Amino acid sequence: MSSFSDGAGPEITGLVDSLLALDSRSLIGALAVLAIGALIALTGRVLSGFWTNYRAWRDRRRHFREVVIDILIHVEFDRKSVEDTTAPVRLEALKALIRDSGDDFRPFVAFESDDPTWEDYRSIRRRLEPSQIVACDRFFDHSRLFYRYYEKLQSDEFVALSTPRKEAALDGLQHIGQDVLQSGAEMVQALQDGKRTADIYARVESDLKKIAPKDGIAEINQQTEKPEGFLESND
Question: How far apart are CA 47 and CA 66, in angstroms?
Fold first, then answer.
């Protein structure tokens, strides 16, 4: 026991060596073994908890990046789709077909309704900045309205419309399409300026430019002008 008293100095290694050298059958030895075991177990739990939390944080961060990338790609495809669908030449050709075919005309609509981007966005919505939430909500509202409206062009309700009202419906589609382009540009700008999303935006824009240099995501900002006299065409 005198050796234990002599070893009770500031040196940690000496203390640990002394504890390990104790007779485990003695009370002090048993307590020391229990204390060391408890310390090891506590350290293991702390490290395990830290690792679990780190993995959860890493997974949330990766999921956030993936969803933002999906949103930016989605808005670029929406831009191209809306531009192609509402191109003045295409709509005028449809109006000519309506006038030639009469009231029974039903256009062919290629429609895909299973895009998961909206639900994915909802999973990270509250992790965005307030201005980004407003911009994203507005874009998705307009985008979903556009495709629901577009899908209606092949419905019996559209067929039942008179020729002038069919043409007005196409003008309405173009109007909603312009809202999609405008809100998409605002959303892209909000993500580009965000603290957590600026780097993601830069990466996506760079990748899109490599695929199609003339059709990079930044070009969406140039597609927001409404044609003069458009509103009068709905009267």
Answer: 28
